[in-house]
Specification:
4 helices; DZR; RING_finger_2_prok
């Protein structure tokens, strides 16, 4: 039997009833399935169960149709089906002579250069990608140049929700719903010293935090 060349990325979907294979692009993962080929030997259920006993139960279910199992059961028939699937699907792929990978012609191949797009990117695609990246970076730059914090109290360590009642917390020091403390630290109303929000008295002047 001739050597099967195009076999790097494929899944064997074959069962005892027939043969089918799914081939994948090395880069994008897109792929194609070969035409289903019925198993002309038409393995019966008794034969499948006999093979299961012979191989220690490995063939107990049709779902266990790996390449090795199919070779044990189908032998040359499976290899012939794989070769035919390769002949059917391989025209949809090209092997890059620079990196050696098999790439799908629809998405990942540069016909003009005869190489994959990773080795020979399409100029129009690169320009469009660069323009989109530049536009995104410019948006970020413009946003950073504009004050986005007007009205926000940045001295307070804000939380998304009030830890006491779970209401939206806002940016204040106290919850607008229940009056619970939101900030990690507060300033003493008497001496303005910074104190933990959980403190009952100011350690500097002895006053209550909220007066």
């Amino acid at each position: 039997m001739a050597v099967i060349k195009f076999v790097q990325n494929y899944n064997d979907l074959s069962t005892d009833q027939g043969y089918q294979f799914r081939f994948h692009c090395d880069h994008c993962g897109n792929g194609y399935e070969s035409t289903y080929q019925p198993n002309k030997m038409g393995m019966a259920g008794d034969l499948l169960r006999a093979a299961g006993g012979l191989f220690g139960g490995l063939l107990g279910s049709v779902g266990n149709s790996t390449y090795e199992i199919q070779r044990a059961v189908g032998g040359p028939a499976h290899d012939k089906a794989l070769q035919e699937a390769v002949n059917e699907i391989s025209p949809l792929f090209s092997q890059c002579r620079r990196c050696g990978q098999w790439r799908c012609k629809d998405v990942c191949w540069n016909d003009q250069k005869g190489l994959c797009k990773s080795c020979a990117p399409l100029l129009a695609e690169e320009i469009a990608s660069a323009q989109a990246t530049a536009a995104r970076d410019q948006v970020y730059t413009k946003a950073q140049e504009t004050d986005q914090t007007q009205g926000a109290n940045l001295s307070v360590q804000a939380t998304a929700t009030c830890p006491h009642c779970a209401a939206p917390s806002g940016t204040g020091k106290f919850c607008a719903e229940c009056g619970g403390v939101l900030a990690a630290t507060l300033n003493c109303v008497s001496c303005s010293a910074e104190i933990p929000s959980s403190a009952k008295f100011c350690p500097e002047c002895g006053s209550r935090p909220r007066g």
